[in-house]
Write a structure and sequence with these properties.
Shape: globular
Strand order of the largest sheet: 1-2
Structural class: mainly alpha
Strand content: 5-15%
Number of strands: 2
Order of helices and strands: EEHHHHHH
Length: 157
């Protein structure tokens, strides 16, 4: 089976907040996304998640990766050089940790665990739940929790 691909707008991983936004430092960039890459992308492709929910899922994953990079940088990123501002990385990781704490307080343990498995760790819902009923319920809960996060992070239109 051939992987389906689509163009999506994502946060620019090379964005520098200390530099002015412009052509050389855009906040968002276009990227080719594999539609079978994750449950979030697959659910968005079939219309089960709206744009605000997808934005919340991507932000959740970004916060998780930023926080996890502090704990185990080699697990997520290939280190090319040892340069960079360690204090700035620490500050970003602390801010991500605070956002994850806010999300956990809003969603509760069950909701936070579901979002961490699907959005943060990239598990597919079909791999986490065996029956159709469990998968449908998890998808409904995912939508509810992502909508709540979108509202909290003011991502909703």
């Amino acid at each position: 089976m051939r992987a389906k691909r689509a163009l999506a707008e994502i946060d620019n991983p090379a964005f520098r907040p200390d530099q002015p936004v412009g052509d050389s430092n855009p906040k968002r960039v276009a990227a080719v996304v594999n539609l079978r890459e994750s449950s979030v992308v697959t659910l968005a492709a079939v219309g089960a998640l709206d744009a605000d929910q997808v934005a919340a899922a991507f932000r959740m994953r970004s916060e998780w990766e930023t926080f996890a990079s502090l704990r185990r940088p080699s697990a997520l990123f290939e280190r090319v050089d040892s340069g960079g501002d360690k204090a700035a990385r620490q500050e970003r990781a602390n801010a991500a940790h605070q956002q994850l704490k806010r999300a956990r307080a809003l969603l509760g343990d069950h909701g936070f665990k579901l979002l961490m498995q699907v959005c943060g760790e990239g598990h597919h819902i079909r791999d986490l739940y065996r029956t159709r009923r469990e998968r449908d319920t998890a998808t409904d809960m995912l939508r509810i929790h992502l909508s709540a996060l979108a509202a909290m992070w003011k991502l909703a239109a």
